[in-house]
Write a structure and sequence with these properties.
- Strands 2, 4, 5, 6, 9, 10 and 11 form a seven-stranded mixed beta sheet that branches. The chain has a four-stranded antiparallel beta sheet with strand order 1-3-8-7, with no helix packed on it.
- About 35% of the residues are buried.
- It has one helix and eleven strands; from the N terminus they run βββββββββαββ.
- Helices cover about 5% and strands about 50% of the residues.
């Protein structure tokens, strides 16, 4: 049974940093691209970042480029999202997700439906 578990969310002030983690189990982690998505109330889910299975390719949404960094440690079955210079507009529930296949990190950037989702972690940024 595949499980993705996010952690690291919380309440911070504008300008602060947070690091989200995604722990995966029940799959061969390196065979899957890993993506982060977010959804704020009354909005559609938004692509944040994705990383290929090897970690060699990364992609970012325009709103987070230059502030967020995605990474992964395949030996630990974990992925991370380092978020710097947070703003209130970053407030959302953040989800990690995985997708298998060639060019799957790019596919997640195009909002291709992932194979598996985590339950989400809340990030709240106060002004």
């Amino acid at each position: 049974q595949v499980q993705l578990v996010e952690s690291g969310g919380g309440l911070v002030q504008a300008g602060d940093s947070l690091r989200l983690s995604c722990a995966a189990s029940g799959l061969t982690f390196s065979n899957y691209a890993l993506g982060w998505f977010r959804q704020a109330p009354m909005t559609e889910r938004e692509f944040v970042a994705a990383i290929s299975g090897s970690g060699g390719s990364t992609y970012y949404g325009d709103s987070v480029k230059g502030r967020f960094t995605i990474s992964r440690e395949n030996a630990k079955n974990k992925a991370y999202l380092q978020m710097n210079n947070l703003t209130p507009e970053d407030t959302a529930v953040y989800y990690c997700a995985t997708l298998r296949g060639a060019y799957s990190a790019q596919a997640m950037r195009r909002m291709t439906t992932p194979d598996y989702w985590g339950q989400g972690t809340q990030v709240t940024v106060s002004s």
